[in-house]
Every structure is written in C-alpha cells, then in structure tokens.
Design a protein that fits this description.
single chain; alpha/beta; FAD/NAD(P)-binding domain; 2 domains; six-stranded mixed sheet; four-stranded parallel sheet; 10 helices; globular
C-alpha cells in the first residue's frame, strides 16, 4: 500500500505521523510505504505571524526543519507537485519525477490574493506572510497618530485573526501612550462584524468599549494608494494614514491549474473527508471547501479522522470514523486576556469571558504546537 501525502503543513504532517505510528508493523513488513512531498524544507507556525506584527515574536521562532517533525519511517522529499493524474493514481513533480499511489492525501494549504483588488497590494499592509508581518511592525513602531483602517476579504485563513489584530492594535497604541491620537476603524464585508454570529455578538461590545469604529457591508473594490483612500463596492470610502488588510484567500495555484476545485478549494465529503468522486483521495486543512474555519485546529481534527480511517481500511477493510466539523480556536482578547471558540457542524460557539489563564494557555500552545504537529497531543 503506497500512501502519498502532498503538502507538509499542519494537516499533512499530522496525517503522516499518525499513520506512521498506527501502521508501524505494516511499514516494518514493507506492506505500507508513506511518502510526503512538500514545496519547502521548512515548517512555519502560521499563527505566530500575528505576534511578529507587534514585535512579540521573532520570525525565526516560527520555523522548524520539516524533516525533524516527521517519524523516521516517512519518506520525505522537497519536490512540489505540479500535476495530479487522479484517474491514473499518479502525480508529477517539479523535478520531473512521477509518484504513484494507492491512497493520496492532499494538504496543499491556501494563499492570500491581494492582487485581486486593484491597489490593495500597494496601498495596504498585511500580517499573513513573514515579510508582511515584519514590514507592518516597522510601520506600527514609527506611527505617531492618524487614521488606521482595517479591511477584510473572505474567505481567509484563521477567521478570528482580524478581531485579534484589532484588539492587539488598541493595546499597542495604548501602551505607547498615543491611543488618543489614533482612530481605528474596522470594516467587514457582511452585515455584522464577523461571519460567525456569536463571535460578532461577543466582539461588538468590546470594540465599543475600546472606541473602535465599525462599518459593515464594506466589500473592498479598490485602493487608491497614492491618495490613501480605500473604496467599497457599496459606494463608501475611507481616507487612511495606515491600511491593514486581510486579503481574500484561495487554495494553492496547483489545485486551480489542475481544475480540481473552484478558487483552489477541493470539493470534499464533509464527514469522510474524501474528494468528491475519488474514494482514494483525502483532503485535509485549508484545501477543503468545507463550511468550517480554515485553522490549524480544524486541520488537526480532520487529520486525526483521515489517519484513523486510512489505517483502519488497511487493517480491517473499512473506515471507522467521521469528521463532525469540530474546530477549537484560541482568541486573544487584548490586555493579556484570551478566550476560545469551540464548535462543530451542529453546535455554534458559546464564547466565555476572556481571562488571563486562557491567555497563558495560548502562550503555552505557541510552544506546544511542535509536539501537536508531531501528533503527540
């Protein structure tokens, strides 16, 4: 049995490690082989980018060598896939090699798309890449006062991040003693301040307490970078001194170019996590088109289901588990406080009051992530 995992992010790494441990006897007997193909030899802890944007983490703290995170029985190659031949059970890679499989796991992730909006790339800053987060921190450090606009495109990775960033921005300027010189205005594309209703209800009074202005139904149409004006499709505009954007995300280009899903999101069975039309192809993490948050926790829970089912199919011929849409997200709430959102397909999140204990739990998880991605937590 040849198991091929394409992508070395959270979901792909957990699948590989869980399978390597579950199938140890079969691997030793050479009945099973696990191969991972990745575009990079590095693994990034992506939630840490928010801390980089405020000078609370250094970029080098976000990375580990991918090979060190994998069980030694996993055959790891830095060789990006450029073509999927699903009907022939093969993929082709950048190096020119062809890999055949019996079971394929696609964990290619997602990417921000600022160039979809005219002027957004030139006229705004974002914290969704290392370079972007460092650049934004330098601008925040030099900022002396004025209007700061926050604009959000959907869908995007970590849906809670715009709210967390807004809280952190308020605290940052307060700590510098210039909060009274800064206007913060948060813009969101639907008629509430977050896509998850209970998150919106929780965040709105906090925004009011912090003196943060909000405008909903603000879908960015273009940014006039020269005159520092962001314009919405609805006809309104905002003059800014600093614009922070959370751009719309797509799945990876290789998924789009292989016509495997609109905007790079692969149609995925919501419970079995198989690609529609292919029982031998599993999809994990941001790559899916599932109606759940594109977060590391969703990828983690999905990865556990996928690895359990692949192992059980090999051992007894049938899957034994289903994904219920479970997501668990820490939410930094400012002033060294945090809360969490836990939900699934059937149950919306019920957010509790933020507290310091949950903040320190989140800080601890920033370190525990490396054990988590190894599949040990």
């Amino acid at each position: 049995m040849r198991i091929l995992i394409v992508g070395g992010g959270t979901g792909g790494t957990i699948v590989a490690n869980n399978l390597a441990r579950r199938l140890t006897p079969e691997i030793r007997a050479r009945e099973v082989k696990i191969t991972m193909l990745s575009a990079s030899d590095k693994h990034m802890y992506q939630p840490g980018l928010l801390y980089v944007a405020f000078g609370q983490m250094m970029p080098d703290e976000l990375y580990r060598d991918q090979a060190t995170l994998l069980e030694t029985s996993v055959d790891f190659h830095v060789d990006p896939v450029i073509k999927f031949n699903l009907d022939r059970k093969q993929v082709e890679t950048k190096s020119g090699r062809t890999y055949s499989y019996d079971v394929l796991v696609i964990a290619t992730g997602s990417r921000e798309m600022p160039k979809k909006i005219p002027g957004l790339d030139e006229g705004s800053d974002s914290f969704y890449t290392e370079d972007g987060a460092v650049k934004l921190f330098k601008k925040l450090r030099e900022f002396k006062g004025g209007k700061v606009g926050i604009v959000v495109g959907v869908p995007h990775k970590c849906p809670i991040a715009p709210v967390e960033f807004t809280y952190a921005l308020h605290d940052y300027f307060t700590a510098r003693g210039i909060r009274d010189k800064v206007e913060i205005k948060y813009h969101y594309p639907i008629n509430r301040i977050h896509s998850i209703e209970n998150v919106a209800k929780w965040a709105e009074p906090e925004f009011e307490r912090m003196g943060i202005e909000c405008e909903t139904l603000f879908n960015v149409e273009e940014v006039d970078a020269e005159n520092k004006i962001v314009k919405s499709m609805e006809g309104s505009e905002y003059q800014y001194d600093l614009l922070v954007s959370i751009p719309e995300h797509h799945g990876m280009e290789v998924i789009e170019s292989n016509e495997m899903g609109q905007d790079g999101w692969i149609p995925t069975d919501r419970h079995q996590l198989t690609m529609e039309g292919y029982d031998d192809v599993y999809v994990v993490g941001d790559t899916t088109n599932l109606p759940v948050s594109k977060t590391g926790s969703a990828a983690h829970f999905e990865a556990e289901v996928i690895s359990e089912n692949i192992a059980s199919i090999i051992k007894i011929g049938t899957p034994v588990s289903e994904y219920d849409g479970k997501v668990y997200c820490f939410i930094e709430a400012g002033r060294d406080k945090a809360t969490y959102a836990m939900f699934d397909y059937q149950n919306p999140p019920d957010l509790k009051s933020a507290n310091k204990a949950m903040h320190w739990f989140k800080m601890s998880y920033n370190k525990m992530y490396w054990s988590s991605v190894r599949g040990l937590l």
